[in-house]
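Suppose you are handed only two things: the residues of a chain and a line of SMILES describing copper (II) ion. What would the bound structure be? This form records exactly that question and the answer produced for it, so the two can be stored side by side and reused later without any lookup.

QUESTION INPUTS
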Amino acid sequence: MKNVTLVVDGMHCKSCELLIEDSLKGIGAEKVSFEGSKVNISFDEGRLHPNQIKQVIREEGYRVV
Ligand SMILES: [Cu+2]
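ANSWER OUTPUT
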């Protein structure tokens, strides 16, 4: 299990977090947690590439710093 922390710009409220969490779980992320503008994602390296994670967050309209 691999773990990455990304700084995401544009998250303003709980529903932003839920939207991002749903999208990441949708592509197979195991665990998603938030601390301010930081998003911590646990995932299986065999199933998911960090670039896919960034892409999904960007597709939801947020900026990955
Ligand atoms: Cu929001």
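WHAT STANDS OUT: Residues 12-13, 15-16 surround copper (II) ion (CB under 6 Å). The chain is about 35% helix and 30% strand.
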